[in-house]
Protein: diacylglycerol O-acyltransferase
Organism: Marinobacter orientalis
Amino acid sequence: MSPKQIPMSSIDRAWLRMDTPENPMMICGILALDRPLSISRLRRTLENRFLCFQRFRQRVVDDGDRAYWQDDPLFHIDNHLHQIALPGKADKAELQKLASDLNSTSLDFRRPLWQMHYIDNYEGGSALVVRIHHCIADGISLVRVMLSLTDKTPEPKLKRVTTKPRAIPKKVSTLQHTLHRLVDSTHAATDQARLFIHSVREDPGYPIKLAATAGGVAMDLIKLGLAPFEPDTHLKSPLSGRKQVSWGEALDLAEVKACAKTLGGTVNDVLLCAATGALQRHFSASNEPAPECGIRVAMPFNLRPLDQPIETLGNQFGLVLVTLPVEVQDPIMCFRQVHENMNRLKRSYQAQVTYSLLDLFGRGPDILERRALDLLSNKASAVLTNVPGPEDALYLAGSRLTQPMFWVPQSGNIGIGISIFSYAGTVQFGITVDKAIHADPQAVMDLFRESFQALSHAALAGRRSGSQHKASRAL
């Protein structure tokens, strides 16, 4: 192995191999800014705060059996940062066309897997379109990386984001490598045995709890494998590989929190209910009955410690299958069902099971991962992710960030991705839809607000009714 090659983790390799012409495995985002940027200042910001992460200077080397990170000997920022202008009115419609085209175009695997397009004339300001391959990091990590480019004031002191240098592995023989792995495995086994003995001494019931946990994991694995395929709807179609993206008008986060408090749930429950209502309304507008069993969406579930340093990239999340009760028309009943479904998933081991499966697939042959991916993707109609962002407005290279949007990649034969992102007291919705699926992404986005308003009004009416009932009983 070359001294400059670093083995890719099995999890990251699994996401690397998910890349297909129909579904490029990229996380794509847009940062809308209130005024044009200085391109030279943007370059300095990237060089100091983005390229300090070595992954963004490394390309992928895949020899079939293993994949590696290798420093790009021809790396230059100009290969990744491009300056363009939008045609016509340079409005939302033009930016959506550009983002749709970029979402449909794979990254260049001869270079580090990221691209940025700076647009200097978007609605009187500017915008930055960012594309990063999923094998580099998960959404939580990449959001933290992108936030490291920003500041709380327009004119801060430009400071370099420091990361711990990674030691370059020394070249070792096959025998030495095998012996090292054996020693590491022996140490790990010894540590586990010591931990087990200590746990038994502290808690005699520990073996029973351990067996119960193992049983729960096994049961969730069986449930995942035996889950039926998604119902046959227009949301599941052979994919074309051409994407359409859109984003909706932001919701007021305070209103979302108030609705969640009134209903006794979480903000995530309210937003999932809004997504359910939007898809329900879409079925109705398409003159297609909503499936009586609901539809499932695959949701990333973060397994990364919140205090983990920012320099630790890679993928550390599992996937859970969430049932959206699109057949339930009453918004309050829909919310109760979503709330119950999420509580059930929080008590399960499904995220850990899917993470372990991805780790296993990343170590095995490509054909095994493809078949397993096809099996799992038949059990969801869309991918949906909800990522919390900063509470206050931020600035990038002196310009205020007015609206951040991003789109989650899809895998297998899934052609719809729904993204939710909170920022500066607002909640942003984004969607990407394969052109082979008969769904207008902007129309679906408009239904999100309509669905949330229906839920909010129903919650408020229920609270008023409850208050009147209490008052009448007091009299």
Summary: The mean pLDDT is 82.
